[in-house]
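RECORD TYPE: inverse folding
INPUT: structure tokens
STRUCTURE:
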């Protein structure tokens, strides 16, 4: 039985772990070939191995999405290796300027005042914007150019955040970057609709990924988040991967310029 995205080619940034890795594996289950892009080559190759073990083709491209040349090289490698690109999931992102995936750096530090906008170094702000917003734009643009050139319909899925609409003290750079991704999604959707390229976003709530490791290590804080979530649990990467699968598939063929919030009801209203 054919999968929901059978024989399509998906590029996934941040594909070495968390939401990106979950998308790669879920997409492979539904018949897609996957280009895994990430800075972490070791874990990226582990994702590739898992995809190929499921019977689909996959390759790793080391990519720093804050560098335009890397984004263009990723798009070129995907087309050279697989002929075209049908799907993009732009999942690469950081929670703050000092975040390094896999190293337990879930917080800037114990001093919350240092994270406040009045005290945050400008270079920290610029680093988050470079990865979370400009990096998404450059990735979207590089892949959209190839989608348009191919004449094939495409689906671009940007990973934003519930923080795109809920202000979080101490995370101004993160919130603003994700709000920017939401607006980027809407503008790009209008610009490329005539080419049958759809652009949508996902705004996850609190998900059990390496990015939230520091928060989850604080039992009191983690309990407070769970208690404030109507569905009574943290989200899992597969929850977001299933949402991305819907947006990647023909089931969402009349969706563009939208954002979906899988957040357990946390940001309802």
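DESIGNED SEQUENCE:
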């Amino acid at each position: 039985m054919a999968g929901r995205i059978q024989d399509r080619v998906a590029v996934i940034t941040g594909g070495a772990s968390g939401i990106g890795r979950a998308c790669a594996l879920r997409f492979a289950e539904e018949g897609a070939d996957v280009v895994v892009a990430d800075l972490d080559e070791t874990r990226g190759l582990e994702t590739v191995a898992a995809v190929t073990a499921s019977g689909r083709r996959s390759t790793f491209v080391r990519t720093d999405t804050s560098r335009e040349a890397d984004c263009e090289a990723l798009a070129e490698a995907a087309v050279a290796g697989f002929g075209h690109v049908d799907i993009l999931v732009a999942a690469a992102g950081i929670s703050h300027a000092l975040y390094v995936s896999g190293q337990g750096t879930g917080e800037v530090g114990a001093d919350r005042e240092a994270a406040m906008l009045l005290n945050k170094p400008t270079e920290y702000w610029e680093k988050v914007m470079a990865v979370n917003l400009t990096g998404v734009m450059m990735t979207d643009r590089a892949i959209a150019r190839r989608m348009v050139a191919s004449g094939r319909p495409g689906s671009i899925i940007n990973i934003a955040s519930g923080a795109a609409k809920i202000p979080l003290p101490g995370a101004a750079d993160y919130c603003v970057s994700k709000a920017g991704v939401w607006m980027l999604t809407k503008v790009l959707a209008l610009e490329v609709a005539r080419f049958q390229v759809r652009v949508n976003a996902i705004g996850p709530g609190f998900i059990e990924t390496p990015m939230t490791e520091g928060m989850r290590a604080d039992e009191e804080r983690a309990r407070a988040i769970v208690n404030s979530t109507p569905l009574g649990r943290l989200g899992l990467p597969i929850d977001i991967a299933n949402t991305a699968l819907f947006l990647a598939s023909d089931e969402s063929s009349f969706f563009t310029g939208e954002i979906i919030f899988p957040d357990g009801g946390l940001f309802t209203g």
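NOTES: The first strand starts at residue 9 and ends at 13.
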